Amino acid sequence: MTHLTSGNLASLAARGIQLPAYDRSQIQTGVVHFGPGAFHRVHQAFYLDEALPSDPRWGICEVALQSTGVRDALAPQQGLYTIAILDQQPSYRIIGAVKELLVAKESPRAVLDRLIDPATKLVTATITEKGYCLRSDGGLDTTHPDIQHDLSNPQSPRTLIAYLAHALKQRRQERTAPPNIVSCDNLADNGKRLRRAVVEFAAQSDADLSKWIEAEVPFPSTMVDSITPATDDALRARVADALGFEDRWPVQREAFCQWVIEDSMRGPTPDFGAVGVTVTNDVAGFERAKLRLLNGAHSTLAYVGSLAGLQTVFDAISDPHLAAFVRRLMLEDFRPSLIAPRGLNLDAYIEAVLQRFGNPAIRHLLAQIAWDGSQKLPFRVLNTMSEALIAGRPIERLCVPLAAWFHFVRRKANKDEAITDPMADTLAQLGRRCTGEAHHDVALFLSLERFWSGELAKDARVRNALIAAYERLAAVDSAAKLKEALGPLR
Ligand code: CS2
Fold first, then answer.
1. What is the CA(187)–ligand 1 centre distance, in A?
2. What is the pLDDT of residues 218-266, one digit of tens each?
3. CA of 487 to the centre of ligand 1 (A)
4. Which of 48, 95, 257, 302 could form a disulfide with 226 if both were Cys (CB 3.0 to 4.6 A apart)?
């Protein structure tokens, strides 16, 4: 079957497909992005595509650290791909912003050259929580095998952290202004965390560089949001139907899309305001609200829903008992931990999020959200729990997603099913040691030092509430059991 290329773009206009509104041969590469997964391609690449008609400086060099998949799929399409926007009326749009596709493990020099090029004024990243190689106290984990590797192999790094440190060193030597470095991952204070990781990495070999990075390089924090189910065969077929030929790797999202960036960038940037990106001083307020209310609710639906044998977010939120529980968790547990940033009404936000979960056009697998629980749950649930304990608020409901994750891990381990998580081996071993007896199993999970930060794991209130939640969820193996299991917590 013919596939999407520059040569057959023109035929798409007649089919109602939105095309790049600029001459692709005129755009320059001004952005280096790490992690060209589906989320980046529906989100940052979409906004940059919006910026290109009025300013051609913001074409993207996509860098995958390891995987060759996106490069292999998109190179024959000259970087072109389709976004399917799935809501009441589906719509399709071709993104033309990708100028270059690199795989770092194959061409580390080319990646460094791009980062050093003074035309690179913006570096963005979606490498997921685990890519930051952080300890639970937020510092760089210098014992991490990839960081160890990168400290002794500066010419062929494995991590974003090392690429940034090496490139910044060179830019400093050459006296070219550093780029704005923008983390777009779901971590609280993502900019500060990335800065700290790069500063601590640089400090291992060059104290002056480390200080310079801390003082001179802008690492704005961001909040990113758009629900993006992984690409599946149904999407490929749907896009082929709309285009009249194949797209080797289309992506999909809901219509809602939001990007909030801290107002600390320096030098030239895309005209973010003009393309619908919010640039504000209070990004932390947006970020926390989204991480807790949306992502916290998502992880709850994912683990409790999976125990009940449900498949998608739509299925989970359509269950009246689970939906009632999640709404209450958002309203009574997450919401009191938040201070609404100016321009955000938290009650309206909660209702809007619940409505987005109920979008019937989106098939978002709970299994996808359940990935990497050890990395996600600290930001989504544990932070709120620590604050609740200090403020004297209850933690019973907050323990439900955690206890559901424990059961999820245990069941996976007992069925010998793979767990997708950087701590997979430890989790599988722990899951096999679980007996089903709540005191015993909760004690095992509380021994996961890398997961729990501070005093939480030692707090008797936490242990007791986890035991109660674990017992409550033990029998859940179908949606019919949810009513009783969630009982008074709903
Ligand atoms: C989800 C997020 O997979 C997950 O963990 O919670 O990817 C979520 O869909 C996005 O953050 C929405 O912006």
1. 11
2. 999 999 999 999 999 999 999 999 999 999 999 999 999 999 999 999 9
3. 27
4. 257
Nearest one of 241, 247, 275, 276 to 16, comparing CA atoms = 241
Range of the domain at 386: 284-489
- The pLDDT of residue 490 is 80
Q: Which amino acid is at 202?
A: A
Does 340 lie in the same domain as 260?
no
Predicted local confidence at residue 453, as pLDDT: 78
Q: Is residue 1 part of a domain?
A: no
Cα of 257 to ligand 1 centre, how many Å?
Answer: 12
Region 431-443 average pLDDT: 98
222: β partners:
261
Contacts 24+ apart (CB under 8 A), 444-451: 445/402, 445/406, 448/374, 448/423, 449/136, 450/135, 450/136, 450/374, 450/423, 451/136, 451/374, 451/377, 451/378, 451/423
Q: Are residues 319 and 385 in the same domain?
A: yes
Q: Which residues, judged by CB distance below 6 Å to any ligand atom, belong to the binding site of ligand 1? A: 186, 225-227, 295, 298, 368-369, 376
Domain count, the chain: 2
Percent of the chain with pLDDT over 90: 96
Strands 91-95, 122-125: pairing is unpaired
pLDDT in tens, 270-312: 999 999 999 999 999 999 999 999 999 999 999 999 999 999 9
- Ligand 1 center from residue 359 Cα (angstroms): 15
Q: Whose CA is nearest to atom 11 of ligand 1?
A: 225
- At residue 487 the predicted structure's pLDDT band, cuts being 50, 70 and 90, is confident
Distance (Å, rounded) from C-alpha 369 to C-alpha 408? 13
Nearest CA to ligand 1 atom 5: 369
Q: Are residues 299 and 257 in the same domain?
A: no
Query: Do 275 and 292 belong together in one domain?
Result: no
**Going by CA atoms, what residue is nearest to atom 6 of ligand 1?**
295
pTM over cut 0.70? yes
